[in-house]
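Researcher: Next sequence.
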Amino acid sequence: METLHFLLSGFGVAFTPVNLITAALGAFIGTVVGLLPGLGPINGVAILMPLAFAMKLPPETSLILLAAVYIGCEYGGRISSILLNIPGDAGAIMTALDGYPMARKGLGGVALSISAWSSFVGSLIATAGIVMLAPLLARWAISFGPAEYFALMCFAFACITGLLGDAPVKAGIAAILGLALSCVGLDSNSGIYRFTGGDVHLSDGVQFVVVVIGVFSISEILLMLEAHHSTGGMVRQTGRKLFNWFEVKYTWVSTLRSSVVGFVVGILPGAGATVASAMTYSMEKRLLDKEGTFGHGDIRGVAAPEAANNSAATGSFVPMLTLGVPGSGTTAVMMGALALYNITPGPALFSMQPDLVWGFIASLFLANVILLVINIPMVGLFTKLLSVPNWLLVPAILTVSTVGVYAVHATTFDLVLMAVLGVAGYLLRKQGVPMAPLILGFVLGPLMEQNLRRALSITQGDTAILVESPISLGLWICAALMLVVPPLLRLRRQRERQRAASPDQAPAA
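Model: Next structure:
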């Protein structure tokens, strides 16, 4: 009953005219950003975060805006995947496998509408999971001390390197680079300047907004200029606009199953929507693909990953709100937004600022309804937006990014550093190095250092405190499993494929 009371008060916050308009605007902007190939939720949230702060929006309104943009990007990413075979973000890669073949068959409208419906169901289930689990996890998290938090953050990095199956080493390199950037500036314990090179502009460290805009937006602009995305393959005839009851019934089990799996994966720090969509697509293919239709326009291959990536995106708010650990790269950016308002997410947030937390959770329900309402009728409009040429799109992104960075401290040094980091991010991405682990490392670096120092100071340097409690020991075991099990499974699958591909040896006479 207490949870229901807080949720009702949260709806009171979410239904205020300003927050309601903000949620609707954020949902629309997020959908537009998500459907433009290559941008994705991190870019959308990163671009709007400094603007929201510069406009002096209240913290709850700013958080509602960024959350609506995040969820809207997860909705919008499927549009370019289905119509162009170009995923709007990494989480929509699996959607293209069956969505684009459906569009080529004249079922683009059905694919778009069923993906909107499964996205709605997945996000709704995950939001209900937040309502039920977040307060319990917050109360449990109070028992976390410095040693437990350090182990938790190490587990987050293990999730990154272990679950990014095709590039765990590159993900680890990106995380280390993020940790290195977080060490620049004044050491809060000793008062010594570290890695500043004597430049006063770095005395307070590298600014979060500069890093995010540089490694994501600027590097994305360079990639877009290089690739010259073509819209020649766009499917302009989307056919029937709305799914029918038979198609809902046919995909219902896959949608529910993928929603639950996606929510569980989303709670894992660092896993994210990309991992959830890949896991659920492969799971549904193993369970249901008896006739080899997956990959050739099976509607279940659209519903499953869409339900999973939206459920995971919403589920990633659980560790952010309750433990102060970002569940994804996008929530890491949102934690930076909270830091701009001097708000520290964690278990105390539910008791210290309940209106902020429950207003945010209630706004997730509203944003999902808004997204379902605007996505299905506006399929034709979104199709036209995909034809925006790069010569118009790139300057717009660059202008917004530059204004956002300059508005924080009004220094040209930040702009230069943004450009340098953008070029570095471009070169790293050309080598297949993911940027989300870099942001997670940059966000978690100071917290890891502080908690490790606090834990060691309690025992005067005795490292045994890091494994003494059952919570920290369990987290270390989970981290070890996340590092060891995925490579072993990949090695096993490779050997099975090699045995299947090798011709049978004839028995010797």
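Model: The two ends are 78 Å apart (CA to CA). The chain has 21 helices and two strands.
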